[in-house]
Amino acid sequence: MHFRIHNEGRVYLIVLIIITIIFTPFFPLIGVMFFLVLCFIYYFFRDPIRSIPNEEFILSPADGIVTYIGDSYPPVDVDVDYNFTKISIFLNIFNVHVNRIPTNGIIKNIKYNHGKFINAKLDKSSDDNERNIITLEKENNDIVIITQIAGLIARRIICDIKEKQKVYQGHRFGIIKFGSRVDLYLPSQYKPLISLGQTMVAGETIIANPKEIKEISNSFKN
Known about the structure:
The protein is α+β, with helices and mostly antiparallel strands and about 220 residues long.
């Protein structure tokens, strides 16, 4: 069994462990309640090993369910004048919330927008909710956009990458706490290989195959 958790969850775990130890001898019922919360926090911040393809694909940036696939303008803060294919992935509180880079490239721009916290299942959350917009430029100059979107419960978006940084598919780049959504904008010539309602696994599920690679070999990533 793999026991790794994301760094953002460690403070919660330490505090809850201390509180559970203090309360359990004197108030067993309260101690049990804190222990159950502790188990949930561990489960939410779990960070499992993923099998990342060695060949270059477009991989899912998040675990969750695909709720939208269609033509779209880029986010208003991205200076690009052509359309994309937008793919929206909804994460409930039981999904792994660690986000992963969908493809190799350079981080061209990162823009954080404050906003609302409406239900992330709604498509208007792409424009209205608090969000972090990441523009990635591939080696061939194609632009891929990843947007981390806060939801009804999620109130904090963590992004661990910086502008001008070189990134690689499948590598972790952040986490959204407690239910959220991730939008992925691909160049319109990239044909999606997924469907509405499909379950995504970050760093493993292949969303598009722009190089039309026929054989896949994997490597395990911590």
